[in-house]
Amino acid sequence: MKRLFICSSLFFILIICSGCSKNKYPIDTPYEFTCIPGSDEWEANSSVAERKAKNKVPDDTVKKMTATALVQTYLDYPYSIDILLFSDESLGYEAVKAENNVLQELETRDDAFKALYDKYLSLGNDDMQKFILRTIMLSGNFVMTEEDIKNRNAAKNDSFIQN
Q1: What angle is formed at CA 126 by the lines to CA 36 and CA 141, rounded to 5 degrees?
Q2: Is the pTM of this model over 0.85?
Q3: Distance between CA 96 and CA 103 in Å, rounded?
Q4: 113 burial class (0-12, 13-18, 19+ CB within 10 angstroms)?
Q5: Which 3 state secondary structure label does DSSP give 90?
Q6: Where are the domains of the chain?
Q7: pLDDT by residue (tens digit) across 128-146?
Q8: pLDDT tens for each residue of 91-117
Q9: 65 by DSSP, 3-state: which?
């Protein structure tokens, strides 16, 4: 009886520990969109609404992606540039976020700003994606460390934007 108790206790601890070691966000690669400019699927769906619907990342996938994968997924989204089509950055961000579950999920992550800023630093000054990331960093509601706040201010004052 004592042996059974010890074995079952060890088994229970093993199950708990194996669950603890699993990564909360196991997907570390960006989502691959299939409805992209030039593809047959793009041509088959002629309206913007149809194309956006085809490019919605499944919610269960978004919830499993790392912040870095979410950032790259948004940048790969065929309509990512829509965020820049507004006269006010915040309005553009909020309008796009309302229909984009990737940006919605990104705002829930503690490491989102770091992932955004790391990607921002990796891009050249003439890269349109840098403008997109800057808009997201300045307009999103992210949990930020003191270092993140300094980096946000640095992005806000980045000289390539002011030229």
Answers
A1: 70
A2: no
A3: 8
A4: buried
A5: helix
A6: 25-162
A7: 999 999 999 999 999 888 8
A8: 999 999 999 999 999 999 999 999 999
A9: strand
